[in-house]
Amino acid sequence: MKRLLVSAAVLPLLYAASAHAETKISTATTAPVKTSTLAGGQPDHLTIEAAGSIAPTVAGPAVTVDSSNAVINNGAITFTGVNGATGIQVNGGVATSITNGGTTSLAEDYTAADADSDGDADGLFAQGSGRFGLRVLSPGAAGSIVNSGTITVEGNDSGAISIEGRLTGSLMATGGVAITGDRSVGVRADSVSGDVKILGAVQSQGEGTVAVLLGNVDGAVALQGAITNTGYRTTDRLADAARAKLDADDLKQGGGAVRITGNVGKGILLDRPPTDNSTTDTDEDDDGITDTSEGTASIVSYGAAPALDIGGVSATTIGAVGTGDLAYGLINRGAVTGNGVNDGVAAVGVRIGQAGGGVVTVQGGINNASGASIVGRAYLAQSTAVLLNANAVVPVLRNAGTIGAEQNGGLHDARAIVDLSGSVKLIENSGAIRALVTPATGVTQTGKTIAIDLSANTTGAVVRQALVNTADTPAIGGDVLFGSGADRLELLAGTLTGTRNFGAGADALVLDGGATATGRIVDSDGRLSLDVRNGKLSMANTETVTLTSLNLGAKGVLAVNVDPTLTNTRLNVTGAATVETGAQVNVTLTAISRGAQSFQIVQAQTLTVGQAGATLAGAPFLYNANLRADTTAGALYVDLRPKTATELGLNRSGSQAFGAVFASLDKDDAIEQAFLSQTTQAGFEGLYDQMLPDHSGGVLMSAAAISAAVSGAVAVPMAIDRSSGTGVWAQEVAFNIRRDKDDAAGFKSQGFGFAAGMDLQGEAAALGANVSFVTTDVKDRGAAAGEEISMNLFGAGLYWRLDGGPLQAAVRGGVGYAFFDGDRRLESVNLSLRADSKWNAWMIDAYAGASYEVQVGSFYARPEISASYLRLAEDGYKEKNGGAGFNLIVDKRTGDMLTGEALLAIGWKFGDETFFAPEIKAGYRAKLAGGPAKTTAHFEGGEDFTLDPEDVFKGGAVVRAGVRGGAARVLYAVNGGATMDGDYEEYDIRATVRFQF
Q1: How far is CA 911 from CA 96, 328, 736, 973, 991, in A?
Q2: 114: how many CB neighbours lie within 10 A of its CB?
Q3: 3-class SS string, 194-251
Q4: Rounded distance, CA 103 to CA 305, Å?
Q5: Which residues of the chain are under the pLDDT cut of 70?
Q6: Is the bond leading into 139 cis (omega within 30 degrees of zero)?
Q7: In contact, 875 and 929? CB cutoff 8 Å
Q8: 11: helix, coil or strand?
């Protein structure tokens, strides 16, 4: 060691004395060189210029540093297929300075083949061995080592940069390093007196291979590049079929991305470029590197080995990086990811301490900075983001970024932070700590989501979540587990979702700053105090929770679950309970309660309620709920009873069905919970109306529109040509009907179809037959999801038509058969049900009408009068696929309607033998008798209920406009119209053409 120190001291003097004395290689050579004999048998510094290269063909080093001289490589050092080869070898005991600014490559001409023809390569990653890019032999050397170029090595038991002893100086790698082969290392430094800065990329692939392996470092360790490690053939998660073909040699495990087994005097910093706050300063962090050239630390391990692994067989101490925000032994400003990739491989992001190894002390703890991340991701295995083993000493963990565990499969745990040492005293969170388990299709989740596990702690710990910056949105997702000490959970901002298990001890839970906490509370010895100052505590418990004290502040909300089948007190307070004025109690029912019930929320030794008392909020809209305090008995109650249909604001048909709907709600758990989660009238009504069948009258009115269109085609005025004996006609029709929700659910209907007819003509009359097909969709306007009925109607009929000159008349009778497809849906958060149904119907309809046309020149006027009758007899039907709580059995129903219509048409006729006549009509259409039928239905196993339809149509104004035209034996008519009756609107377009032969 003394010799190294002397050498280190005299090295600058040697440089000064021989500033112009160095040997340069500027051409290609295959001859290895030694610094001790470089200058005619004398020692000298060496520079390999950009055009220079050394490419030996035999084993051994290309450059041997065996004297206190410096080496700069700006050119190329190359070996191909040579075992036992080294690019630059520094012998032990020398003082030197090594800079690799060019390329160092120790490669081989080998590509793994697909021996078993399964679509992927087989065999070793590399065949050769004992290859090193830059190697310092034991016991070490003095001086600095810099890699700003590239070092690539392919070989087993090899290394790109390997310092196998004490480096009295510093190590900096800003260039790229790549190592491929088993049991190898990308950057190894057993002991360094100065800093180790790895700012470039390090890639490593091979079984047991490590990207960065560090021992004792007296200075700081700074990592600021992409460092990756794997033993896999590919780091992509392949499709199922491709993964099934992977062989054992495709699934080897690497040794980790970064392993630190020794002391680090000035901490470990995973860094990133500084924030750009200056337009003139290009190096704002004063690290000697242009900020735009700096990268961000990204440490990734693909496989079971941790991405960042700290600790060895002996005791290890990691000193603090600095002071203030830097007063932590490990600071992460980048990204650390442990990714198992393949099935059954557990993943770890950061591990402190080896199982059975020495104590690892991280002074000041861990700081995961804003924008940084630590992630563990696994498939069909456990995932852990931060693991502190039993021999770790980490007093504080501060998180302003993201710490997350992702488990895919559903049968294993996801753990964001796990402390097995019991040494963590404080966790501060202003970022996100989350654990997520995603079950595979068809798998019931048994894996736990654990955000923070401090259950090994016996002396007490504090978890504090708060805002550091106003833009922070802190969150903890997953369970928080404490040990047997006096623990404290302070939620001063943000959210926590998951079970809070306080274990034993005198524990405390504090909510302030508008924080919310949702999930179960577990405390094994009943010594937990609750202090909800400003925030919302949602307790998923239905069993009794024992507390020592309870404070519900003026801005505090206590949300509790109430199971109607259980009558136990929710909170048993052995001491004092205080409920301040303005506080709220929020109630969630876990099941339908059928009658009036009282539930005790709090039983306290003493109960103090503010002057104005607390209020009840969040109860299901389906119930009347009141909060009642009995301070003498120290009890706080919630009184619940179902609302009546009137109190719920239901309309007529809603009220008629309410008893049956309410009775069916608990037949399906999802439906039950959907209704219990509705806390507003709008939310309740939007869900409730989806439970009702079609009943508003849309089907009958759609059939009436179809009948009217066919009758209108028959009645189109046309003179009969006495010389012809046959007439044919065709019509196309489209219509739209809307009826607003009022006493029932309302509806909207739209249809499109065709009709055609043929008649035999006499002197003044014609006798004919018609056929028609119309398809119609009828939708419920009341339900949020909308019920839809598709009707396909086939019709046929006979008609008689009179041509008496200005007097025209027609009579028609018909029959139809309809096919119905029903689609009723129930949609809500976490709920989607669909009930299907099919049924048929018979229709009969009749029409009689007459018109008389008066013509004055080209102007004409034509009064029209008609009456129509329709009867629709629908079969009953039974829905399927919606489940017992949603499927309906609907009885058959028959509706009929008689209407009368009086219109006046006026128009102007252009032409004589061939004419064109625009015309308009106006008048009134009235319902004379009948209407849509009542609908009787019941849920499976339930009682019948009967719904009255809307009073769809009483009578309203009719307006039509169009054009007629034709010649002696042809007539066409195109017109559109509207019928308006308050909340009822009907629109249609008809196109008709007639021919006589």
Answers
A1: 113, 100, 34, 16, 21
A2: 11
A3: CCEEECCCEEEECCCCEEEEEEEECCCEEECCEEEEECECCCCCCCHHHHCCCCHHHE
A4: 30
A5: 1-20, 288, 612-614, 782-786
A6: yes
A7: no
A8: helix
